[in-house]
Amino acid sequence: MWQLEYPWLLFLLPLPWVTYRYLPAYREARSAVRVPFFSAMSRAVGETPSSAGSRANRWQLLLSLVIWALLLVAAARPVFIEKPIERQQPVRDLLLAIDISQSMETEDFTDANGKKTNRLAAVKAVVQGFIDKRKEDRIGLIVFGSGAYPQAPLTLDHASLSLLLNDTGIGMAGPNTAIGDAIGLSLKMLEKAQEQEKILVLLTDGNDTSSAITPDHAAEMAGAKGVVIHTIGIGDPGATGEAKVNLSELERIAKTTGGQFFRAEDRTALDQVYSTLDRLTPHQVKTLSHQSQHELFFWPMGAALLLLALYHLSAMLGPRLVASSQRREV
């Protein structure tokens, strides 16, 4: 569709008529020879003198009005606006923090075929399905063991994220568990994020034994920065040492930040946890619209100039053509 950027200029359309109607004609004094018997001479030759000026030339008046209207339309800046181009932008930054300590090699989960597999392999399969459902979210990956390390930055390139997830192996970050450091690293990664909703999904099967910052203190910092942490415990609370998952600590972390705590004892339960998380963090996008504009002012401007040029050309060549035809007749 097309529109005028300055439509109020069209209110000036009646200005020439108001000027013509209420202002006197312009007269210019010039030196001339006065002939007392001019009227008699005119009657003798059969000619009637006409008044000078454009008021007696209706075609010139009409042309002036048309040119005035065209120039006003050009000044009002007509533009053609194309259909809006829409794109989607994520409104959520989602970090996944996955425990890859030595205890994750315990084979107490089953794969899609029902075969026994270690905890990390089961987690990878379920997390991959979760990533596939979050196509419009920026997702990052943190792995932690004795320390916490960024495996993938926040990105919309989920294909690369999947490759980095598959390359993650047990023990790459050390044999111990550093939950507090993983939360602290996530806060640094989310610090420069522009979106309002920032979420961390933390999965572990052990308790914190090697963090420089306690998980509770890290959770308080996350809550102050508006980062919501959902925690998932998949370990055995009845185990001893590093392999014993601290469920009460994970529950406190989630409660402090406004998140939820989940207990996943097998692959089916883990799959249900991520399905629940998908409902808790709904699929939301911002739709941005851009409409291209094409200037059209040169069309009425060009038409006005063309009419003006044709008028002056006809005024210049008209008398010559008439004189030439009269000479031929004689």
Q: State which percent range the strand residues make up.
A: 15-25%
> At the first level of CATH, what is the class of the largest domain?
Alpha Beta
Secondary-structure element pattern, one letter each: EHHHEEEEEHEEHHEHEHEHEEH
Count of extended strands = 13
- Mass-distribution shape: rod-shaped
> Which residues form runs of ≥5 with pLDDT under 50?
none
Structural class: alpha/beta
- CATH H-level homologous superfamily name of the largest domain: von Willebrand factor, type A domain
Distance between the termini: 59 Å
What do we call the CATH topology of the largest domain?
Answer: Rossmann fold
Query: Biggest β-sheet: count, sense, barrel?
Result: 6 strands, mixed
Work out the helix count.
10
Number of domains: 2
Helix content: 40-55%
Rg for CA atoms: 42 Å
The largest sheet has its strands arranged as 8-7-4-9-10-11
Summarize the structure.
The protein has 330 residues and is α/β, with parallel strands linked by helices. The chain contains ten helices and 13 strands. The chain has a six-stranded mixed beta sheet with strand order 8-7-4-9-10-11, with helices on both faces. It has a three-stranded antiparallel beta sheet with strand order 1-2-13. The protein has a two-stranded antiparallel ribbon with strand order 3-12.
